[in-house]
Amino acid sequence: MNLKQHTILKTDGKPAFVILPYDDYLVLCNKKQTRIPVDGTIPHEVISLQVNNDWSIIRAWREYLGITQIEMAQRLKVRQPTYANIEARHAKPRRATIERVAEALNISIEQLA
Predict the structure, then answer these.
(1) Per-residue pLDDT reduced to its tens digit, 94-107
(2) CA separation (Å) from 9 to 3, 4, 22, 25?
(3) Among 19, 23, 38, 65, which one is most buried in terms of CB atoms within 10 A?
């Protein structure tokens, strides 16, 4: 791995901090770059997906995050057709189901409102 970085040294010449591009940091941490706002808002792209495609907010979030229905079904421990019914445009999932979906997507329940 060829990372671009800058080192900030202490007065004694020893490294104190390393500054590197965020994408490189994610690779080092083995994390995917998050696209979920930490302030609890819904990204414009999610709303656009929902409105332009006439999708449910659940499907719009799933598509935005690049998650398949099969992966969501596995996260929720249900079959894929069951999950497809949960995210259907006119479905009315129960509060407990919405909470489980929010947790599986790693978003707040308010972001599914």
Answers:
(1) 999 999 999 999 99
(2) 18, 17, 20, 19
(3) 65
- 27: CB partners within 8 A, 6+ apart: 1, 3
What DSSP line would sit under 20-49, residue for residue?
Answer: --HHHHHHHHT-PPP-S-TTS---HHHHHH
CA-wise closest residue to 43 among 35, 53, 51, 33: 35
Give the closest residue to 112 by CA, choosing from 41, 33, 63, 39.
Answer: 41
Q: Decide: helix, strand or coil at residue 76.
A: helix
Instruction: For residue range 57-105, list pLDDT tens digits in order.
Output: 999 999 999 899 999 999 999 999 999 999 999 999 999 999 999 999 9
